[in-house]
Amino acid sequence: MFNTERTEIKVFEDILLRSDYFSVMKKCILSFTIIFLALAASAQELQPYQLYTQSGKKTTFRKMVKSLAERDVVLFGEYHDDAIAHWLQLELAKAVLERDSALVLGAEMFERNSQSYLDAYLVDSLNAEEFQDTVPSLWPNYRTDYAPLVNFAKDKGLPFIATNVPRYLASAVYRGGFEALDTLSEREMGFIPPLPIPYDPELPGYQAMLEMGGGHGGPNLPMAQAIKDAAMGWSIIQHLPENGTFIHFNGTYHSNNFEGIYWYLNEYQPGIEVGTIATTRQEELKNLVEENKGIADFILVVDEDMTRTY
Question: I need a labelling partner for 184 at 20 to 30 A (CA). Which of 51, 160, 177, 227 fits?
Answer without folding.
Answer: 160
